[in-house]
Amino acid sequence: MATTTKKGFTVKVTSDYAGWWRYNVALMAGCFDAEDRQTEFVTAGSHAADVGAELKEPPAGIAPGRKITLTTAPCDHLLLYLYIIPHTLPPTNEIDETQPFDVELTIAYEGRRVSKTTRRINQWSGASVEMRVEKEDAR
Q1: Does the residue 51 lie in any domain?
Q2: Residue 63 belongs to domain spanning
Q3: In 3D, which of 121, 25, 6, 123 has the Cα closest to residue 74?
Q4: Is the pTM of this model over 0.85?
Q5: 12, 15, 78, 108: most buried, per Cβ within 10 A?
């Protein structure tokens, strides 16, 4: 059996939060060469429900602990955009019961981890994150 070498960046977003199903997730990345010329634009996401759906339970097909993965062709660096958008708001408006939750963002280049970070996400507003990622960070 032949093995394949992973090329480019791989970005994964996951969460163990029980209410993770209440959020749509979009990943977008502009890929650039060493001269800062854009070479590619890629997207990945998980659309659980339309914004404002106000569901009472997880929709079919949205597994607990779902993982959203984006992959790119080889490039020098990328501009990464992560959007976490609530489609169903928390079931209560009590502050103590609606604490921020964590998502884990793992980034690798050619199979070597560049970074692994945890982001705190507001249950009401979700998140909008922009970050520049360099392949050299994988050394």
Answers
A1: yes
A2: 9-138
A3: 6
A4: yes
A5: 78
